[in-house]
Write a structure and sequence with these properties.
The chain is built from 2 helices and no strands. It is mainly alpha-helical and about 80 residues long. It starts with a helix and ends in a 5-residue tail after the last helix. The model has no long low-confidence stretch (mean pLDDT about 80). It is found in: Mitochondrion inner membrane.
Length: about 80
């Protein structure tokens, strides 16, 4: 009985792995100069603004959240 219970999950896992491998193989990207980023790199000021905003939000969000929680726990005193 244990062999019957064990075979079904193994077969399902094998089928899942085969489906994933076929999906990955179907992806194709063209290697074109200046098309490796998901944004336009020809407009330098706009690219710089996007990078600065992304870095500021990504780095500053934890500090803002910590400050907000500290102020919230202290009763709102600044």
């Amino acid at each position: 009985m244990s062999m019957l219970l064990r075979n079904a999950p193994l077969r399902a896992a094998r089928a899942f792995n085969v489906a994933n491998r076929q999906q990955v193989r179907g992806v194709h990207f063209e290697n074109v100069v200046d098309h490796t980023l998901p944004t336009d790199v020809k407009n330098k000021p706009l690219l710089a603004a996007k990078i600065i905003i992304f870095a500021t939000l990504g780095f500053g969000t934890p500090f803002y959240a910590a400050r907000w929680h500290i102020q919230k726990s202290s009763g709102g005193a600044a």
